[in-house]
Amino acid sequence: MSYKKLKGYALKRLVQISTDGQAVGTSLVEVKTIVNQAVPDSVFEIPASYKKFGNTLANCRKEIAVFLSLKRERKALVVKASKT
Fold it and tell me: φ, ψ for residue 62 (rounded to 5)?
């Protein structure tokens, strides 16, 4: 497969990591080989051991709405975690 036909795919990416303006490291990802092959359907199957949780995005939206309303009222939110 020709590299020139891969429009939109970065073949090399260098990320410089910094904390408080200080360089602490780099991360390099570089494509060395490209193979055109079929991927078996089993790769995309959800493992039987996975458990479905409720609609977490909806729950996050509710929590954000509560937080914002408390912030407007200048109240603190105390959350106690329970073991499951």
Answer: -65, -45
Give pLDDT, residue 23: 86
Please give the structure tokens belonging to residue 64.
């954000």
Do residues 18 and 24 make contact, with C-beta atoms less than 8 angstroms apart?
yes
The residue whose two tokens read 């939110």 is 77
Identify the pLDDT of residue 6: 65
Has residue 44 got a pLDDT over 60? yes
Q: What is the largest CA-CA distance in the chain?
A: 60
Q: Where are the beta strands (DSSP E) in 1-84?
A: 12-19, 22-30
Instruction: Please give the model's pTM, rounded to 2 decimal places.
Output: 0.31
Measure Cα distances from 62 to 15, 26, 72 in Å. 35, 37, 15
